[in-house]
Amino acid sequence: MATVSTKEIRSRIRSMESTKQITKAMEMVASSKLRQAQSRALAARPYFEALLATIRNIAAVSTETELPYLTVRPVKRSAVIVIAGDRGLAGGYNSNILKLAQTQCDGRDVLIVPIGKKAVDYFKARQPVYTEQYAEAGEMTVGDCFSVAKQLAKEFCDGRIDEILLCYTKFVSVLSQMPDVQQLLPLKQESAAPGGQEILYEPDAQTVLEKIVPEYLGGALYGALCESRAAEHAARRTAMNAATQNAEDMIEDLSLKFNQARQAAITQEITEIVAGS
Question: pTM of this prediction?
Fold first, then answer.
């Protein structure tokens, strides 16, 4: 009986060692991808911040109240862009952002724009999906972001959707990722700061706003995509590191049980020999 138990324990130890090798390799891959994604996210932030500041300035100095991008109308239908991952094994990264996106959909007429396989699989059976052309977040390019942005801007101007929301995961640090939702359209018209520098736009602020808003949407989408990719790799790295540590703890515990079982078997054999003699 002790021999069978020893064999089972040895088999479990080998299984856990194989699992440890896999999780360790996935942690190293995630760490390598995280460095690239983190540098890309940090490089995209200044562009997005400058573009957002320009948009806010134009909206503040604009005297036209009937511009489609500034018009706040009753929300009958919303478009929600959801950026999730293409794969699992990333801790709570996918579940957290999908839960946040679901709260934006409950009790409302919503059109989902999913980016990432997990978002497509989750919303396909729950909400009308705008497009599945950009299902993989890892393969989405800058051009794809601006293409989606132009389509959504046209839908908003035509009155088929009344607001555009963006759900993504903000990369705070390697150990911290925060799901967030932002309203992209309609633009919030804030008052200009007193004493600020006056900016002249050619031919006028309205024309510039009509041209730059689709670019703003594309830049916001690309920036959120970079943030989400960095957050996904950071979450996967943390999850795989925790899995590796758990595997090491289980191997240590199983090794102790294996030694105890082997010692018990040896003691039993000695006892039988002494009793027989």
Answer: 0.83
